[in-house]
Amino acid sequence: MTLEWEQVIVHSVDPTALGQWWADALGWVVVHSSDEEFEIRPAPDRLPGLDFVKVEESKKAKSRLHLDFRPDDQAAEVARFEALGAKRVDIGQGEQSWVVMEDPEGNEFCVLGQRQQ
To answer: Which candidate, 44, 92, 93, 49, places its Cα nearest to that of 67?
Structure first.
């Protein structure tokens, strides 16, 4: 059996706004847009992508799945995400080497520290 990871689905009250926010934050391209769905990818022919799908209700609890990013410069990336509208959040992680943040709809993601050599 062969599988290819196509995308991660993100439920969103406003898929276009949230999808565009993530496209800007990651430098990705939009590959599909409609009233109900907004898909972005690293490049038009590169997988996996993020597919933002419309739901009526807003997020109510801690996300059960989130994205982790490993930057060259954690402080610079955290500052860049904050400038785009992301917020630091405390989900009970305590003192860690990563920074937990949330996007404009409250979906958590982590900006990890520099990889140990």
So the answer is: 49
pTM for the model stands at: 0.88
CATH topology of domain 1-56: 2,3-Dihydroxybiphenyl 1,2-Dioxygenase; domain 1 (3.10.180)
State pLDDT tens for residues 35-74. 999 999 999 999 999 999 999 988 888 788 899 999 999 9
Q: Whole-angstrom Cα distance, residue 91 to residue 72? A: 24
Domain 66-117: CATH superfamily, name plus number: 2,3-Dihydroxybiphenyl 1,2-Dioxygenase, domain 1 (3.10.180.10)
**d(C-alpha 99, C-alpha 90), whole Å:** 9
